[in-house]
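RETRY 2/3 - previous attempt timed out on the joint model. Re-submitting the same 875-residue input unchanged.
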Amino acid sequence: MSLSYLTPEFKVLRDYDKCINCKVCMRQCSFEVHSYDEHLDKMISNDMNCVNCQRCVVLCPTQALTIIKHPQTFKEHANWTYDAIRDIYRQAETGGVLLSSMGNDRPYPVYWDKIVINASQVTNPSIDPLREPMELRVYIGRKPDKIEIDENLNVKTKMPPQLKLETPIMFSAMSYGSISYNAHAALARAAEELGILYNTGEGGLHKDFRKYGKNTIVQVASGRFGVDREYLNTAAAIEIKIGQGAKPGIGGHLPGEKVSEDISATRMIPPGSDAISPAPHHDIYSIEDLAQLIYSLKEATDYQKPVGVKIAAVNNVAAIASGIARAGADYIAIDGFRGGTGAAPKRIRDNVGIPIEFAIAAVDARLRSEGIRHTISLVAAGSIRNSADIVKAIALGADAVYIATAALIALGCHMCQKCHTGKCNWGIATQDPNLVKRLNPEIGYKRLVNLVQAWSHEIKEMLGGMGINDIESLKGNRLMLRGIGMTQKELDILGILAAGE
Amino acid sequence: MLKEGYVRIPSGCAISGIIDRTGRLFSGQSITDSIATMHDRSNGLGGGFAAYGIYPDFKDYFAFHVFYDDLIAKQETENILKANYIVALEEKIPTRKTAHIKNAPLIYRYFAIPKPEKLKLSELDENEFTIKFVFNINSNIPGAYVFSSGKNMGVFKAVGYPEDVANFYKLESYKGYMWLAHGRFPTNTPGWWGGAHPFNLLNISVVHNGELSSYDTNRKYLEEFGYICTLQTDTEVAAYIFDLLLRRHGLPIELACKVVASPLWKQVERMSPKEKILYTNLKIIYGRALLNGPFSMIIAYEDGFVAINDRIKLRPLTAAKKGDMIYVASEESAIRQVCKNPESVWIPRGGEPVIAELIRDNEKEMYSTKEVTA
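RETRY 2/3 succeeded.
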């Protein structure tokens, strides 16, 4: 192989006045950036390997380390950017598809940040959530059109199975394999503590976590990993994964070297074998096939569990969602194009799909125009970064949101986008036992609980400001939103007015 | 400036309601005196009344009260009306010239029943048929607005102070068993008569003091059931929700009240197993019908009225009883003005409905006193 043309992306700055040669950085870095030079009696760094995960920066006892973007540039060119040139070097060297992780990092407009929220003044008193009741509970599932009661007020309506969420937030699908055992342990326990649900992703359900069943959504994806009757019946709900926002239209691939004994048992595949999720479900080539799978799963669980369908936000998302609703799904999860992933081809991640803001608005409008919106639940996913995003998502038409990247950041993720290497220094996106043990689930679950509780407090404050004391009254309440810096077309699709209107 | 219906206008208000539970008829003077006491709660930009039992001679006919901007709108409306209804009587609603009511539109009323062959063809019942007719006129004929469509009842409203509106419509000459009144304080000057209260659809009339923070959620929910919200007012939405719950879903009024001012989850947790199932189902199914935000409102239907606050009582509402007469109003003064020595006067808690119905053989009291307040 010829000389690599790639230069370091990051530069490690070490303050030698502060460095005490303790070698913590060396031991912490799975990418082998730091080493100790005995002749010089000092720590040195190989910038080439650095991914800017900042594990060394945070753990350095004397704050001797800083990682900066490497100052080396190319001759400035507005078209042939730094990334564009380097991607070509990389592909010319390897002949391979470029891999990346986490969500789309391109500078597309973030529509959440072009939407502002209303508050009450004079004509409508704002409500102080510390002094007045404020309800965040939502139920995810299929709803009857109306209640039927007899003359003695006994309910005759047969309520389809529902998921009860004490706050309209769930942890989105991340498989055991893409993230670690300890990450799953933290998510499951946090979900139980918060009265919400976490999603196993498509990698099966580890036997240790079956005890969290009532707070668990299990996925059935195209690889069918870990799916058996017990798996389905342990969970509170089942989700058919059709697509994922980070990589719509393609499948997944967990390399054999990551398939440890434990993962092999959980996924129900031989150890060391590649875990391939085909791009489509090979028993779903059309909507009627989806209906069959939905009802197969309902049959397998005696109609006791909601069966949802997760799709990526793509051009025709509204019509697809309508078909899913009519195929019998209890909820639809829609994952926007900024949604995260443990590994995706970079070009797909960065170029395929549409923003969740438009997708949720379009789906909600479509289902309303068909008069079926109130019968089904809608979950928005694909880059919910804070509580304001949640308020905006629900006002645009979602019933609840899924968060995943935010949850991982709460666990310590520093967004270096190297999940696909399996070398996560924070013990999250790795199966290396020495790395996994860095993530303490005991601490991790508390951080997750803190995050969701903090967001819930903020949601209550925003609701109170709007003069609302129940999250139900925010659903589809687009009059509470205004747009800034958008075209009329964008405003129309979002179904909101411009600020000042 | 945009006309009401194209823009949302928050308002403050005065409301009042009186019923004689025996069904005895009394003139519109009492309700006028009551609402006039609260003159300062409105600003002269909207006043109105709903009167039940005023058209006994035509009690089986829909009584349509219509505002027209011009004769073209009238002609177009009457073409549709007469193609679909047998009209027993049409006339100008009698008014009296007063100094304080200006820019009156043409105001007509029609007593009509659907033509049997049209009704049969539509495969609807006469109520659904009539709702469709009203929505059609109000959304498709510019300058025409049907503001009252019930039987043996009528709404009278205008831009002005309520006592002037009563004078304008000669309400002292009508006799009803139940009256609602409203004085409006909108936050800008739409000057449109249709925007005044009460809001009416078939036999349901609503007067409302408040602003619904949940307006858009409620509106979109109703649209899924075919309601078209032409006015962008909170009151319109409240009226349709009661129509949906009472008439189309057949809920008893007590439960309809528990939808629009639902008990909190922590209260549901404390209920008996049977009630818990009922209220959990009710909240899950009708979450989007919860009326959220500050309000006190009176909803009248054939059998009586219900007065109710939002569940944390952010607007005033007082009730009183004397014999078979039940009074509700924004302020106690408005009751004492027309009922000197009430047997009892009370301030209902948030979400606790005051239900006053005509006396019938089998009284149902089960849910009328249940506490809902947080």
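Chain A is about 30% helix and 15% strand. Closing ticket.
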